[in-house]
Specification:
Number of helices: 28
Strand content: 15-25%
Oligomer: single chain
Largest sheet: 8 strands, mixed
Radius of gyration: 33 Å
Number of strands: 39
């Protein structure tokens, strides 16, 4: 409950930046007593109709009393929020707590009246919807559980804001007014609405950066050279379809053009009738704030800041970066950068190369995101090259190199790619993940529609690159990688693998399974490919050797036969050129392979070739068989090059194999069997994930769960502790809490001496186990700290004496007695709340398998029935659970239920920040939890459940 002092404290944590429906940004903050003039000015710009809808009567101006009431709040029972752009109000919302009779009230009353007013010029931008999310979150924080709103029937826009929000609501009509009442507790529907709006808004904000109608480059030199002039030249050479402006305050007043581009000393000098959509900022960091202010005043929609000297340069630069983001958002602009390499859009309708890349990349269907400029250059070069490895005419749709990603991040670009019709495959190089919870959620949704391949740099150092301020994670890289794979991400280790896998996905359909046919004219290369397939977990058939005398017709016949086999899911062709063969032979073989592949459009085909001939180039050319196909052999790679074969017409995303039936088959060629097969294995695993994702699992309900009793116990236990870091529960309390979720823990009794041990054994009943609980000996049967199957008191006393003689005094060993459990396999179940990734469930076999070899599987909580089955089967030692070497299989259904009960406990109660069940002995029938520890702490903030916000400026 709030005290009088904090009822009036300014709640700074309510301040937030949001992306609106049109891609612009606004700032939401509490209204204060200093906002009187802003409120009056705002109200004067609202139409009479909107005022009538707000007050149900003509209300031309606010009285002094009105202004005082609307700017003075206690931030508990009376709250007002404003959405601002450029520091000025564009919309307001307020709530007043009321009692059951509609009169002003204080807590414990849990209902409030809510009312909005949006400036007419900003209606339709989603401002009211964003304000509703934020004021609802504020109200929940202050103990309000329900909103009531009275709206005139003609005010259909505001009625739609309420009804579309997804909350549980009631609607009535009385005295000519529509009364809406709705609960504020988030529902699946309200979260779905919120996330759909988030996706549309963030995608639109990126689209404004990638498809501008006009670009101003600020910091252009009068002579060639320099960053600004280079970006301008790249835009021109790419054939940008919009207007260009060159800006530099050092230009002479009589200078009107720079290399044919209109020149201006300031962006505000550009003709006001011409909208400036995007500004590329290439001036020294100290001058950037002045440029941002000019762009904001001019109505520029977005910025690409290539200037360096920000967070990558130290503490002073980090503060400069924070100020840059705050300033840009004040004007509703989003930023790529600072320290960015730039952005590219190869669409023929845009042809934007607002980057430092000297050549426009080849158009294609791959979206590319890189945080590092250097890695971005390397990726563009690898995709652009036609020789020396992975080759062909597959290019990119869009490219974003975000630099310090102070604002626009990989999450924003994922939102854009999700429903971008020009992008079939998404490739990302990430050095840090600023919001892992959100990234995992977006990645899963994206992967359900189109493949997402990720390589993460700086993964072993545990240190984010300079300039990247991210939340710390306690999870090892292997765990993060496993969680990404659970979300459908194809996680690779190098940029070579990133390109290899991406090109296969962009050119070929998804395989139906892991069965691989291998054919070629080299027995050795075929056997090598076979071995690699086995190592990658595929199911290869014995290689078919066509001998070195095989002709193009032989290859075609063999490939057609392999593709026609119902027991084949993919084909790898190995091609060794004969001495003396030239371009004609390469072209003939490529045409034969392409023709055979075209007859079976649902199965992927890959080629492994050696670096002697031009087969890779010929394979690319062989796909260009249409009447309008360009002459690939003669095509230029410069800015005036014709479109690549795969961009002649849009094609649907490769969600199904049918997408490829009318598309020329671009067969990917690889210089090594290892690269080809590794790419294929990743695609096979992704295809399997897609099939499983089509039938999502369920979170079952189990008997024996008492959520309210567990909540009461947690509250009681936390109230006893003042430490904000939390508390480790003693065994008795841990056992009681777990019992509320149907997780029984085998009782242990202390045995400080032999007599007490005997008493404990009589209480529990023989046979018993005698164990030490000292941290250095716990679960270490190999060190003699556990004695099992003690049948009577004589055995127990003998074991106690041996234990204390060999390992130390009872006070050091802390012995306990526990009744014996049925024999089985020892496993360990853990759950942890990571500050960055969220709640994670882990499973493995107890002992060396998980501790030494790291054989542990992980899933995000809440865990579904499919997740529980998958986590058990995904560890390398899983065969031990299923009857390895003739042993009896254990009760895996009981284990799956235990995993889901632990998941439910942690998901229901965010105060449970750590659970360890070790060992869990899984027998052929049932299981026994022999040890348990639970850690409680005040619940961490859940930003993924709150209203939409942009990340705080780092």
């Amino acid at each position: 409950m709030e005290t009088p002092s904090d009822r009036h404290a300014y709640p700074a944590h309510w301040e937030a930046d949001v992306v609106l429906r049109d891609g612009g940004t606004a700032r939401i903050r509490p209204i204060t007593t200093e906002d009187a003039e802003r409120l009056t000015s705002f109200y004067e710009q609202v139409s009479d109709e909107s005022k009538y809808y707000r007050f149900f009567a003509p209300y031309p101006r606010l009285s002094d009393k009105d202004v005082h009431r609307f700017t003075h709040h206690d931030y508990v029972d009376r709250v007002g929020l404003a959405a601002t752009v450029g520091g000025e109000f564009i919309a307001t919302v307020r709530y007043d707590r009321i009692d059951a009779h509609g009169r002003p009230a204080s807590a414990p009353a849990d209902e409030a009246e809510v009312a909005f007013l949006v400036q007419d010029a900003h209606q339709g931008r989603g401002v009211a919807s964003a304000l509703l999310e934020h004021v609802a979150a504020v109200a929940r924080e202050r103990g309000i559980r329900r909103f009531a709103a009275e709206v005139l029937p003609a005010n259909t826009k505001m009625i739609k804001v309420f009804t579309d929000a997804g909350y549980t609501q009631k609607r009535s009509f009385e005295d000519g007014v529509v009364r809406l009442e709705f609960d504020l507790e988030p529902t699946e529907a309200s979260l779905a609405v919120q996330r759909a709006r988030e996706q549309r808004a963030e995608a639109r904000s990126v689209q404004r950066l990638l498809a501008p109608g006009s670009v101003a480059v600020i910091g252009v030199g009068r002579t060639p050279g320099g960053v600004g002039r280079s970006v301008l030249d790249n835009l021109k050479d790419a054939g940008f379809t919009g207007r260009l402006y060159a800006v530099n305050k050092a230009f002479p007043e009589d200078l009107t053009e720079v290399d044919g581009v209109p020149a201006h000393r300031c962006v505000r000098d550009i003709d006001p009738a011409e909208q400036v959509d995007l500004a590329v900022v290439a001036v020294p960091a100290p001058h950037v704030p002045e440029v941002v202010a000019e762009c904001g005043a001019r109505g520029v929609q977005g910025l690409i800041v290539v200037s360096a000297g920000y967070a990558e340069s130290g503490a002073e630069g980090r503060e400069r970066q924070r100020a840059l983001v705050r300033q840009a958002r004040t004007y509703g602009m989003r930023i790529v950068g600072p320290n960015a390499f730039g952005v590219v859009n190869t669409s023929s309708e845009v042809r934007l190369n607002a980057s430092l890349a000297p050549e426009m990349p080849r158009p294609g269907r791959i979206g590319l995101f890189a945080q590092s400029g250097a890695i971005g250059i390397a990726l563009l070069a690898r995709l652009h090259r036609r020789g020396g490895g992975v080759t062909g005419a597959t290019g990119i749709s869009t490219f974003v190199s975000a630099g310090n990603r102070a604002d626009v991040s990989g999450n924003d670009v994922l939102q854009y790619w999700y429903d971008d019709p020009d992008t079939d495959v998404a490739l990302m190089y990430l050095e840090s993940i600023g919001n892992p919870r959100k990234f995992t959620r977006l990645a899963r949704r994206t992967a359900e529609a189109k493949p997402l391949v990720v390589v993460q740099g700086a993964r072993h150092s545990g240190i984010a690159p300079t300039g990247h301020a991210v939340r710390a994670t306690r999870l090892p890289y292997a765990t993060v990688s496993a969680l990404l794979r659970q979300a459908g991400v194809i996680r690779v280790d190098t940029i070579t693998e990133l390109v290899d896998t991406g090109l296969l996905l962009a050119r070929q359909p998804l395989p139906a399974g892991p069965r691989v046919a291998i054919l070629g004219n080299s027995e050795s290369l075929g056997l090598l490919t076979y071995d690699v397939c086995l190592s990658e977990g595929l199911r290869p058939k014995p290689p078919r050797d066509l001998t070195t005398a095989a002709s193009a017709a032989d290859f075609r016949a063999a490939l057609e036969e392999a593709l026609a086999d119902d027991k084949t899911d993919a084909v790898v062709v190995t091609a060794m050129p004969a001495v003396g063969e030239g371009q004609a032979e390469d072209a003939e073989l490529a045409a034969a392979l392409s023709a055979a592949a075209a007859a079976a459009p649902t199965k992927p085909v890959l080629v492994v070739h050696v670096e002697l001939g031009g087969l890779a180039e010929a394979l690319s050319a062989a796909a260009s068989t249409g009447p309008n196909a360009p002459d690939v052999a003669a095509a230029s790679t410069g800015p005036n090059a014709p479109d690549a074969p795969d961009t002649q017409a849009p094609r649907p995303a490769p969600a199904t194999t049918e997408a490829y039936e009318d598309t020329p088959r671009l067969i990917p060629a690889y210089p090594a069997a290892e690269r080809a097969v590794h790419a294929l294995s990743e695609v096979v695993k992704y295809a399997q994930w897609r099939r499983e994702a089509a039938e999502p699992g369920k979170v079952p309900e189990y008997d024996g769960v008492d959520e309210s009793a567990a909540a009461a116990l947690i509250t009681e236990l936390l109230a006893k502790e003042d430490d904000p870091r939390g508390v480790e529960l003693d065994p008795k309390d841990a056992r009681e809490l777990l019992s509320h979720y149907g997780i029984p823990v085998r009782q242990t009794l202390p045995a400080p001496d032999a007599d007490r041990a005997a008493d404990a054994a009589r209480t529990l009943g023989y046979p018993v186990a005698l164990k030490t609980t000292a941290p250095h000996l716990r679960h270490r049967a190999d060190l003699g700290g556990v004695r099992l199957d003690l049948a009577d008191e004589t055995d127990l006393r003998r074991a106690y004496e041996e234990l204390t003689e060999q390992l130390g005094k009872p006070a050091e060993l802390r012995p306990v007695v526990q009744s014996m459990a049925p024999r089985g396999v020892d496993t360990v179940v853990r759950a942890v709340i990571d500050p960055a990734a969220g709640a994670v469930l882990s499973f493995g076999l107890a002992g060396a398998a998980s501790e030494l070899l790291g054989d542990t599987a992980h899933r995000l909580i809440p865990v579904t029935d499919q997740d529980a089955r998958g986590i058990i089967r995904s560890i390398k030692t899983a065969p031990i659970l299923f009857g390895w070497r003739g042993a009896a299989p254990v009760d895996t259904p009981a284990l799956e239920e235990l995993l889901q009960r632990v998941s439910r406990l942690v998901d229901d109660h965010p105060e449970v920040v750590g659970v360890v069940l070790e060992p869990v002995v899984v027998a052929p029938h049932g299981l026994t939890v022999l040890g348990a520890s639970v850690r409680l702490a005040p619940p961490p903030a859940r930003d993924d459940l709150g209203p939409r916000t942009l990340p705080v400026a780092y």
